[in-house]
């Protein structure tokens, strides 16, 4: 029988007596409250004023797990131009440089001062910088023109003009991407979708939402919530990211375990090709077997073959009952056992199964001055969420599951949230890790798909590597503070973070390409959910064969023969 | 309070007393039994001996809902060559005719007598006819060579040779398609996948199955069942159809409501392009954001850009508890109300919501000499299935739902299956319709996606049309016996059947293209789940814009510039 230790006073403890689980708590939510309470909605909005200093990038190429809620509490560091950080990148001389005539054309086309940020005919450096620099403060382009169309027709005319005149284009949604895909590298024109932000329709019966690409994810979810539905995607940046960008990057996030990927949920799509062609595939049908499913190429296409201007998406019924449990475990073997049991016993109500190692939770506590929900130290922690239609049934299932995993000593200790605030506190232990990892100077981040049985070995091997090469230690003499592992257990998606006191080329060299080789040997993916962007373009060969890359290039050339769309990135 | 009428003696009735639902029955299934009992598995196997007679096609171009269990009990009719039924189709003269040297090459390549059916150097008419004629007995090609490769490498060499020599190819799985896509039109070489039938791997934890394209759907599901999982697709032809063909046609079926489409469930795919290139995209990862998701083009590509040779697919946890209820309703408005309530109250456990009109059920009873589960007549019937992890919880949810819909008089009468045999009887009322519709001489079948509120109006308008044009009546003077409507309510997928005593061009003219125009006006789809094949190729313009068709042709030309893959079909 596992010993019961102290628990966070605000949370009722899981207690085991005679192998019977008692006092498992549950929250009861009204459907409307559930909308807000199912997870804390982070209001991440890029503060462009912060992006105007100049220095080394603060983060590695691979991006963060999820965009944290706010900038870490440390001195703002300057962002170098990407062209200076990556001197091997050269501007493609086939692209024309912007002239006053071009700007005049766009101003007439868009017909509104607020639709154009013009750094060609006047000084607009500060205004432009918010669109040039990325959220991670690592990439910074030199764009001198931002266009904000308000209709698909305007997007079409913009692209046609750019294509005819060999002007490079950088499509941009909420600019919350983590691989440098959403900001220009040189002087590409930024086409920002923010003004295309209308919900076009919502069908109460089918749950099908049709909306412009520029609708903020949180707003889309709120809209669905008003009708008792849920947007089938959820991620930390939901307060800023746009649904068009989500689709263009095939965002994964926290609901994928339950609701599946965007390739299944997106029913229709409207996009504009470089030559101005409007791809009118905005179906609101669940089934439509009439020809190749071309829209799929735009899902995860990262704006390299066209700009997504609207989507039609299936929103599932919103669950009135949401429960969250958090527990400590002795080993990764036990994490896997717990996951298998959760899948079996919680089955249709399981909506998240997240894993965090002990180091990740200690780091979170240290960075935030927070107290963890469980006292005592555990090598591993898991957070599970259930969502269902019946509070009593869900609680009973959850209790039976917890009883089993504690009785079998799979889980050492645990708590269950009893109200919305506790639910949010438990989620914060998982979602706060990404921000915490950047808190002490810098972090190299990797977002990887790895077969489940081998998933955690990578963290252990990375740790051994830094222990043996003398780069990791407790004092300031060592660049690496710690190596942490966490992620979406339900999707075999590991976030490996090398937490640093400072950026150091030796650290980077010790990890790359070793980490990609390690993943490739196990037939994993070097980018589970963040995409390729600029950061991972060089490494696609570790996850895709030459044949596949060749076939992808063929598609790129088919749709964008001039190569104007999001150049220097992707494949 | 709705009156309670007689019920099928073998089934316990739903009774309402004081607005309280009593005696709702439930079935309890062990996980292993659930595998077999979740639905009757129809063992449909094409009997080629039956296909050798010659006559008019017995069915219309649009195919059946699901392939029925066996041929109707009526005289076998002859099947005309497609080339004779459709004299406007001409053999493409660019394609070379087969020579003895070609056959010699293939025999050496495949190295086995059983791998080649050679009608070029000898008489093999009877053997070939099973591969030339389709299940619907409507289409019949004139192929003289069938190749049965046993490896992806052999498929690659076959296609490369065909492409180099301008030999047309007809990929073929289980040949259970309903739109003439799986049989040749002229002398295309049939490449049949039946010998590639190995399960390559199954991961217990993730539920990911990797298997050759030629694995029979039923076998794939049985394999998943052994490990407590379920194949995420189910359809009447599961005893014959192959998973490669299912993916190539993007089959929909009965589990789509719950588990979503193949675009979301297929994680990886191996295919061979016409030039012999092996598309090695057989990922077993739930998340992999590294480049364009090219495999999606093969899902629903109907063998026109390559041959699917293997798939990797996510199989959900199998539900130990399965319940089926069947009820009568007064109007289509009430069917919609019942569906909304089922979505809300049964939510995560709802696995099917099927609608049948009164005429469809009467036809089923008449054709099968069967007694319907509910006595008395109802204008509409619904079948709902729940699948979940906890029998008690599911029954409670179902009872609460039934109590509500009966108390509110949404539903007039109903029964719940209490054991496996009852469950199968109830499913038979839905699944037996397709076969019944062909029982009385002929049937024109349409498989349509229509927005839910308007879905049933089409049936009513079609009925009015035949009533007013004098083609429908009770005596043998009228070619049309009845018009019936049924289908997957949960997917807005209507099967409209014009039940005939005989085929009559006047009937066809009264329906086509009117039905396609009607659907197009409501932004529906002229093929929800059956695909295009030969039958619907001329009508794609009703569901897709010229731009979309143009973009599709571009993809076809990219992958199959010589046009050798499944010619005369699709787009």
UniProtKB/TrEMBL annotation, chains A, B:
PANTHER family: D-2-HYDROXYGLUTARATE DEHYDROGENASE, MITOCHONDRIAL
Name of protein: D-2-hydroxyglutarate dehydrogenase, mitochondrial
UniProt organism field: Baudoinia panamericana (strain UAMH 10762)
Summary of the function given for this chain in its UniProt record: Catalyzes the oxidation of D-2-hydroxyglutarate (D-2-HG) to alpha-ketoglutarate. Also catalyzes the oxidation of other D-2-hydroxyacids, such as D-malate (D-MAL) and D-lactate (D-LAC). Exhibits high activities towards D-2-HG and D-MAL but a very weak activity towards D-LAC.
Protein family according to the UniProt entry: Belongs to the FAD-binding oxidoreductase/transferase type 4 family.
Annotated spans, Disordered: 47-80
UniProt main location, coarse: mitochondrion
UniProt keyword annotations, A-Z: FAD, Flavoprotein, Metal-binding, Mitochondrion, Oxidoreductase, Transit peptide, Zinc
Gene Ontology BP terms: malate metabolic process
Subcellular location per the Swiss-Prot or TrEMBL entry: Mitochondrion
Needed co-factor(s): FAD
Assigned EC number: 1.1.99.39
FAD-binding PCMH-type domain residues: 139-318
Gene3D superfamilies, per the entry: 3.30.465.10, 3.30.70.2190, 3.30.70.2740, Uridine Diphospho-n-acetylenolpyruvylglucosamine Reductase, domain 2, Vanillyl-alcohol Oxidase, Chain A, domain 4
Compositionally biased region (Basic and acidic residues): 67-76
């Amino acid at each position: 029988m596992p010993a019961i230790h102290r628990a966070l006073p605000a949370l009722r403890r899981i207690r085991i007596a005679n192998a019977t689980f008692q006092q498992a708590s549950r929250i009861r939510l009204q459907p409307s409250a559930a909308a807000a309470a199912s997870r804390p909605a982070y209001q991440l909005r890029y503060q462009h004023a912060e992006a105007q200093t100049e220095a080394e990038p603060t983060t590695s190429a691979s991006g963060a797990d999820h965009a944290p809620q706010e900038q870490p509490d440390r001195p703002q560091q300057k962002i170098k131009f990407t062209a200076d950080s990556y001197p091997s990148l050269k501007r493609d001389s086939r692209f024309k440089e912007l002239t006053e005539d071009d700007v005049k054309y766009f101003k007439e086309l868009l017909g509104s001062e607020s639709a154009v940020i013009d750094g060609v005919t006047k000084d607009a450096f500060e205004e432009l910088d918010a669109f040039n620099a990325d959220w991670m403060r690592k990439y910074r382009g030199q764009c001198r023109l931002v266009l904000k169309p308000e209709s698909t027709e305007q997007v079409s005319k913009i692209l046609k003009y750019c294509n005819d005149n060999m002007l490079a284009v950088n499509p941009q949604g909420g600019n919350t991407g983590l691989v440098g895909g959403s900001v220009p590298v040189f002087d590409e024109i930024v086409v920002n979708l923010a003004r295309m932000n209308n919900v076009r329709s919502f069908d109460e019966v089918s749950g099908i939402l049709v909306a412009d690409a520029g609708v903020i994810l949180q707003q889309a979810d709120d809209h669905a919530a008003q009708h008792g539905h849920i947007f089938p995607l959820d991620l930390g940046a939901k307060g800023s990211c746009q649904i068009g960008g989500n689709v263009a990057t095939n965002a994964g996030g926290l609901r994928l375990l339950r609701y599946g990927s965007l390739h299944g949920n997106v029913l229709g799509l409207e996009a504009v090709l470089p030559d101005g062609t409007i791809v009118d595939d905005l179906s609101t049908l669940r089934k439509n077997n009439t020809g190749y499913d071309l829209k799929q190429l735009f899902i995860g296409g990262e704006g390299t073959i066209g700009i997504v201007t609207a989507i039609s998406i299936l929103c599932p019924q919103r669950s009135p009952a949401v429960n969250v449990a958090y527990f400590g475990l002795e080993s990764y073997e036990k994490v896997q056992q717990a996951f298998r049991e959760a899948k079996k016993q919680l089955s249709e109500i399981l909506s998240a199964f997240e894993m965090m190692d002990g180091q990740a939770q200690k780091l979170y506590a240290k960075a935030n001055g927070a107290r963890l929900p469980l006292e005592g130290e555990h090598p591993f922690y898991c957070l599970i969420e259930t969502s269902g239609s019946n509070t009593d049934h869900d609680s009973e299932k959850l209790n039976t599951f917890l009883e089993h995993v504690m009785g079998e000593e799979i889980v050492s200790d645990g708590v269950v949230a009893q109200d919305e605030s506790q639910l949010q506190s438990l989620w914060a232990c998982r979602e706060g890790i990404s921000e915490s990892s950047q808190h002490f100077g810098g972090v190299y981040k990797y977002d990887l798909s790895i077969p489940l049985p081998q998933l955690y070995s990578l963290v252990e091997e990375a740790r051994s590597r830094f222990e043996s090469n003398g780069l990791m230690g407790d004092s300031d003499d060592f660049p690496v503070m710690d190596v942490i592992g966490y992620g979406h257990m339900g999707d075999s998606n590991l976030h490996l973070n090398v937490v640093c006191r400072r950026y150091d080329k030796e650290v980077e060299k010790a990890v790359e390409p070793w980490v990609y080789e390690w993943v490739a040997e196990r037939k994993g993916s070097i980018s589970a959910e963040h995409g390729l962007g600029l950061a991972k373009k060089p490494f696609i060969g570790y996850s895709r064969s030459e044949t596949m890359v060749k076939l992808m290039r063929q598609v790129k050339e088919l749709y964008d023969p001039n190569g104007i769309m999001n150049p220097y990135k992707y494949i």
